[in-house]
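User: These chains co-purify. Model them together.
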Amino acid sequence: MTAGADYSPEIAASHPVRRFFDWAWSGTVLPVLVVSAAIVAIWYLAAIWMNAPFQRDLFTRADTAYSTSELVRATLSQERPVLPAPHQVLQEIDKTVFRTKVTSKRSLVHHATITLSSTLLGFLMGTALGIALSVGIIHSRALDRSLMPWIITSQTIPILAVAPMIIVVLNAVGISGLLPKAIISAYLSFFPVAVGMVKGLRSPDLMHLDLMRTYNASPAQVFWKLRWPSALPFLFASMKVAIAISLVGAIIGELPTGAVAGLGARLLAGSYYGQTIQIWSALLVAALLAAVLVGLIGIANRIVLRRMGMAQ
Amino acid sequence: MLNSVDAGNDRSAVGNDAGGAAVIEANGLSLTFHTNDGPVHALSEIDLDIRRGEFVSLIGPSGCGKTTLLRVIADLEQPTEGSILVNGVSAEQARLNRAYGYVFQAAALYPWRTIAANVALPLEIMGLSKSEQAARVEKNLELVNLTGFDRKFPWQLSGGMQQRASIARALSFDPDLLLMDEPFGALDEIVRDHLNEQLLQLWAKTNKTIVFVTHSIPEAVFLSSRIVVMSPRPGRVHDVIDCNLPADRRLDIRETPEFLDIAHRVREGLRAGHSYDDV
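Assistant: Joint model of the two components:
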């Protein structure tokens, strides 16, 4: 072996450490870690800065002399901080998720499950409604003209204004619990599905449609053999948006119920009693839940497209 | 202008039944598109008869209406004047009867279907049994030399193979008439030559009537038993040229005087039809 061969790029690239860094940089792992670390660092600095005035006030009132490090430590361990530190939020999540019985009203799992069930029910209703509307719209010019403006208008009304009305009206006719919240989720989530599916069902190109015409295919055959498979990538993209806003809808739906149960109730109760740590832990759990739900749609998307031979 | 040339007398090219019944009869066919820039006369006063077993090429420059004429035969466009009969019935009725297989400029395979499933698409629509579908798919893939590619997806095949699959799809339900709209236009010349030879063999084997749109003179002369030369603005039939090359011709026939003579006549026809005016 010559000396030159030792320094060939292939061999340098195949060094395990080098390979690890190549992999880390080329993938998404390292960038995500760097961004997360930056967010945590900024969060800590913001917590110290925002909690310091109150802490200084406390020290002054108690006539206690304090060093900077004592001040910093104190700002990160307040009971009701303006901005809780990340470790406080994590401790709270740890306590309410893993160290509390699931059946307890203090368990975040209990509340998350309630929110999740209305999210999923609302998502299913919204997706079904969105698909039904889009099918009607692409097959009928009259529906296209008459429905589309209403669909768009529905989303310009602030959901915070509509949600209490839906809850109150449905409550008056004896419907309460899961369904009203799911309806608010569906109200939000049908929109991206309807718009995405109208686009998706219209996405086959003219040649593919002409081909169906030469076979004298029925409208149902054109739909199931051409339009529906063409629209599936659009459907999954829409469902990713829809499931995330379904969660938002479910949380909003829980606010006017008087904070009985659910992540929305935890947020509201936390703000009533100034329990900022509780608010932030509910927020974080809601965000994690949304990430998991969107991720699941992504996985389903990949499986379906691979089975259709479209993921290369 | 030439019309309804008696096609029965050039049957010597291939052993199809001489003087077969008229498959396509167009009389005074005109089609005007109304656009924002005023009317466009895509077709004007087209008279054309095509008989069973013929291979007729429609040749002309872009905008001469050759594709539009093919689409009128297929009932994908409706003429504004004149009449068109396909298999003795209206073009619409012929389409409803699934009288023809249509091959587009692009393969137009459905990307989510395997090659076998693409070929089976018309058979599914017609409601054939699974076993019948499988048998026909196998037979037609063999016909276009794609045996063994049935489980591949379209993106895994080259452009030429995709176009062959689309021909197999058009043949799968065994229509007597094949309408081909510049099927090899997007392929490179080597692949195109190869497919031309294969198409000729396929025509001889299957006895189909083929109407073939092209803008390539050698392709038209090599393939056809009759060449319809069209001219633009408005789209009309300028000349109809009989092509009596031997049935078992190979690509090297393109070097022979007979071939060059016909090619010359086609080129003269295109020139006289002002096809080269704007070039």
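The beta strands of chain B are 22-35, 38-51, 55-59, 81-86, 89-90, 100-103, 177-181, 209-214, 226-231, 236-242.
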